[in-house]
Write the structure tokens for this entry.
Amino acid sequence: MEAKAKARYVRVTPRKARRVVDLIRGMPADQAQATLAFAPQSASDPVGKVLASAIANAGQQGPADASSLVVSRAWVDEGPTLKRFRPRAQGRGYRILKRTSHITVIVSDGGQSGQRAGRRERTR
């Protein structure tokens, strides 16, 4: 069984969000939540909310607690970029890019992550 959660148009840059998502990929869900609670990055708050939503979605599909779930897949895609201008000297304007992210987290009951690790071993 696997459950999915997605947050779109999150106002955090994809590069910074990927650093946080790389921390929790492959971890047990309860351990990933504890890691995100104490992570100093600002992107850990929206990623933690998406992870909590995925765990809640798994609870809706069947009886599952956070200790039996594993973050099997997690990724960050780039959303639309908001283009703004900052006034500079002598009437110039510099472009400011405010990037957005689409964060996706998939949790499973642990069976699938072992298969993925085995597949990686065979390809090396």
User: Anything to note?
Assistant: Residues 112-122 have pLDDT under 50 and may be disordered.
